[in-house]
Amino acid sequence: MTNDVCLVLEDGTILSGQKFGADRDVDGEVVFQTGMVGYIESMTDPSYHGQILVLTYPLIGNYGVPTETEFDENQLIKHFESDNKIWISGLIVGELCDDPSHWRLKYKLAEWMKKHNVAGISGIDTRALTKQIRENGTVLGKIVQQPSGPFLGIEFKDQNERNLVAEVSTKVAKTYNANGSPRICAVDCGLKLNQIRCFIKRGARVDVVPWDHPLNPKDFDGLFLSNGPGDPVMCHKTVKNIQQVLASSNAKPIFGICLGHQLLSTAIGCKTYKMKYGNRGHNLPALHHGTNRCFMTSQNHGFAVDATTIDNANWEPLFTNLNDNSNEGIVHKEKPYFSVQFHPEHTAGPEDLECLFDVFLDSVKDNMKNVTGLSIKNRLLKKLIYVPKVQLERRPKKVLILGSGGLSIGQAGEFDYSGSQAIKAMQEEKIQTVLINPNIATVQTSKGLADKVYFLPLTPEYVEQVIKAERPSGILLSFGGQTALNCGVELEKKGILKKYNINVLGTQISSIVETEDRKLFADRVNEIGEKVAPSAAVYSVAEALQAAEKIGYPVMARAAFSLGGLGSGFASNQDELKTLAQQALSYSNQLIIDKSLKGWKEVEYEVVRDAYDNCITVCNMENVDPLGIHTGESIVVAPSQTLSNREYNMLRTTALKVIRHFNIVGECNIQYALNPNSEEYYIIEVNARLSRSSALASKATGYPLAYVAAKLSLGIPLPEIRNSVTGVTTACFEPSLDYCVVKIPRWDLSKFIRVSKNIGSSMKSVGEVMAIGRKFEEAFQKALRMVDESVNGFDPNLKPVNDEELKTPTDKRMFVLAAALKAGYSIDKLYDLTKIDRWFLSKMKNIIDITLELEKLNCAIPEDLLKEAKNHGFSDKQIAKFIKGSELAVRKQRRECNIIPFVKQIDTVAGEWPASTNYLYLTYNASTHDVEFNEQMIMVIGSGVYRIGSSVEFDWCAVGCLRELRNLGKKTIMVNYNPETVSTDYDMSDRLYFEEISFETVMDIYSNEDAEGIILSMGGQLPNNIAMDLHRQHARILGTSPESVDSAENRFKFSRLLDRKGISQPRWKELTNLQSATEFCEEVGYPCLVRPSYVLSGAAMNVAYSHQDLETYLHAASIVSKDHPVVISKFLTEAKEIDVDAVADDGEILCLAVSEHVENAGVHSGDATLVTPPQDINKETLEKIKGIAKDIAALLDISGPFNMQLIAKNNELKVIECNVRVSRSFPFVSKTLNHDFVAMATRVIIGEKVDPVDVLHSENSKVGVKVPQFSFSRLAGAEVTLGVEMSSTGEVACFGDNRYEAYLKAMMSTGFQMPKKSILISVGSIRHKNELLTSIRDLARMGYKLI
Questions:
Q1: Which listed residue (97, 258, 294, 1218) is catalytic?
Q2: What is the pLDDT of residues 1058-1071, one digit of tens each?
Q3: Most buried residue, 357, 425, 483, 588, by most Cβ within 10 Å?
Q4: Residue 345 bears catalytic tag
Q5: What pLDDT digit, counting tens, does each position of 134-144 carry?
Q6: Catalytic residue of the set 49, 301, 343, 872
Q7: Partner residues linked to 592 by β-bridges
Q8: Are 61 and 108 in contact (CB under 8 A)?
Q9: Residue 256 is inside which H or E element, if any?
């Protein structure tokens, strides 16, 4: 887009952008506002008269503007804050929406502004402008309708020198609700219409009078002083009139808002002052002096009352701003006079203190009856005071934390993040922590976090044993997902908590049960006048069918007390419901039948509440997918994009009401179904614990939810907790975002042949990504690439158009949608098929429009189009593909044109406050960096999205590396994009880039930072895949050289390397064509193994038993490994597999661990049961293994971690593969053998001298057994037999004096239950039957019935 208009500031700054609205020059004071909704209300607020308004949220105009011809019964115009008038001089935005979407839409924002002759500029880096105003103060500016300077003879007019109040005030008195009572005289200094509405809906008559109207107490029962623009000094007439009322013997109650507060304060002798840049936003925390409760307030003012000038004899401060300590209100100690700086009438903004109108009117009514009653001060105290329902009897000295166990679908790494934060919070409060969690791969189970860690099953029996031994006085149940909650409920039911006198910290079990039991939940919600979708709780299939008849089909059925929608689905008829009900009742004894609201919007809020009823919403999120798809399966956007201020705050107010009613203390999540064509909504559910959404909200906003929730569980008031990102503001506030966040789930359904690719109300995804940008398109395309590195973005050429797939979503629906847009499907047609809001569809169409432009080109690309493509989230590789060029050529042209990404901070406050935050992202929709690059740091690349094969174990390695570098005095940079991880916590590194792990992005960060080097070996396969690309561009890769990494990853090179050294391996051949592959397999004999290069978790690795198998598998492998060779090798049956994890320095091994697989070779190492130290490998074999490891380390000149897999058969050892990076068993061997392999590898990588350690022969007496965690119950039709391609979603490990004890504990930790009566035995070959005979006899002797 061509820039055609400029914003010129008095300090000489010139910013150019694109014009919209009126084509005219305007001037005014340039101010910023941090609200994320409510642009209509702000623009029509008279307090903004004469100002050029900068909106910090970059995406403006999304829901358009409603009609101006709709009035209420009192002839007040609806939806606006003044009668058909925009008061701002001009509007500055990052992006103007050209295709708004809302059921109330009448005008586009630009059309409405043009109608009212108001100018606007888009395409401005509003964050940079906000920071400039923050640092230098408000500044005079002018919008000039020319593309560039010079701007000769330009003059700047200071509107504060005018009496702005006289310009906005009514010229004649008006009466509203003439028959109402009491009579309120409202002095219009710039009155907002919602102030009138707030009085009228309480029955009052409102007489609106001009700003300088004489005030006779006989003419009214109460006096209201409105808000307004400008300097209060200009309103000396109003002040004089107020003083006369105050001096009158007939004391009438007075209530002032904003400017009205300043005028009342001036009338009693206070001084006012001009603030540096004012308070304008919807999240300003005001602390009430009488109760110490803090409330979210909406504000818009540039002047404030000097609290030091208050006459303390008769008056006192009422509220104080917790961020800047400015005065927010005054109250007379005895008489009915008070005023507040904020806007309790809201619009836009939170409705938390609308009750001030009730307090004022109650006082007026008592005064009319000559009833002395309470003073305003005491009325407010009575109204706002809160007595905690559950008092913490004593502060605990030791706390038990229940973890979540092995990662599974629906319960993943987010609980490692939340549990780690909880432990940190407890440590700060000097409280001992005891953690029970059998997940060996987690950061929270590492040394240095919890004081004690028990690797035990999360069952009441084992937890009681720990309680008996440790005697904690408190227990935390909210940080371990559904597993911890369910265990806590069982502990309560069995009386264990009472028996040992343990307090449940935070939300009580009664509240947990009320939110989990669907009938109880519905009943409790109905008590406060809210509603859930019509539903019934049933306990049998017959009851389910009866309930569905009553509610009406279609219905949704779901199991109660379950995780991630386990056992849920939609039914359109009896047969479908029967099937669903039978399935769901196998998971839970209670089944919920809900009315189907498919196609409605799904919106959720993360809510925080303390024991003293301070309550805030930290993040609101909107699902791109309509209701009917589990929120864990949905694409989610934060903040919501298509909700108006009214909808946003309607749901926010309901959230606070519900959470207070359930007496939740800590953090929780509330989900809504919102009708896309009205304001009708239902509450879907409340999760009374931290959830996957909580982790997303924390990372999306920068607000440390889990840390704050842990502090609140100890009874610490929310206002006393600092915002750890800014360091200066309170944690009792609602974050302002000046960017857009997109979350997309990751599915691995292709690993399960018979599993349906359809997604719905039951979770199937194994992980998720989060992308950040200042355009939706930018964040959306980033996220698509993060989910799958083989995808370039919103690519219309990946899938064919398929209407059925658009109606019934699959894991690949987005690419079908892209193809449909390219094929010319209209937005309306796509909305009918998908029910995805038109706003999102329009944004997706923008991407396809640019794609079509790019596809017309051949190698060369115009600079304007290149810039536009980058602004919309296109990667260099994506552009290169469309223009038929190369990624490096696009990169070279881009940098020559100075089209570079800018580094922006996530600071929770949209730039309003200085923040030394290290939480960063890249965007092309900006003009300046937020940070300076003046220190050399070491970059550590994380593991990216959790998927089958790469999960929390790699995050443990990355975090361990960061910690060790910090211990060694090194500054660190983490690059990762997974919101579930500890590595993406703000306090784990010196700089955190929430960004793609791609050559382009890592290279851009590396170039900006001029990093000391990059560590790739801690993040698993993903970083290794870009090693050679980075190396070719001369990036400094620390540790093992990329050539050596390539020699190990490239199957052909590695196999050839082993042959040259004479290291034994299964016979192999590189695939060149099908005929030679077939000849090789015939020569060595089937079965044969097909092995692609540079893949993770055995992707496309298959065992071929026939020619037909071979052809099928070779085709799949060649797709996965397009740029690298595929190797075929002889598959050895009945062999034993061995894992080796080691650290080497310049090819010399420093430490080495050996783990043996319980299962025979042929089961992927990630799905195998591992035992360490090895129990069945003799000393001679161990020496051979060490010898092979030594040779390979030397051959590849390894400096850092590596993992090797061997196969043993007939006393022969053969090498299968070597990964020159950490492996998923690194946490297991490190914790079992009491030696931190990652810390040692980190020291080696940065060149520290490290002495060898023999961990194989240490005095460690315990045996560790690692067992995989499967999620087959969530994947209907999944093949449960194991093979060479990994299918487990997580792992657990337990310890024992021997492998049998450790194995049994580990199996129970995965949910395995000891059989009570009968055992079904199914065994294959005669040899296997004979092997099992002894065990079968033992089971028979134990009294089991064997079938």
A1: 258
A2: 999 999 998 888 87
A3: 425
A4: yes
A5: 999 999 999 99
A6: 343
A7: 537, 558
A8: yes
A9: strand 254-257
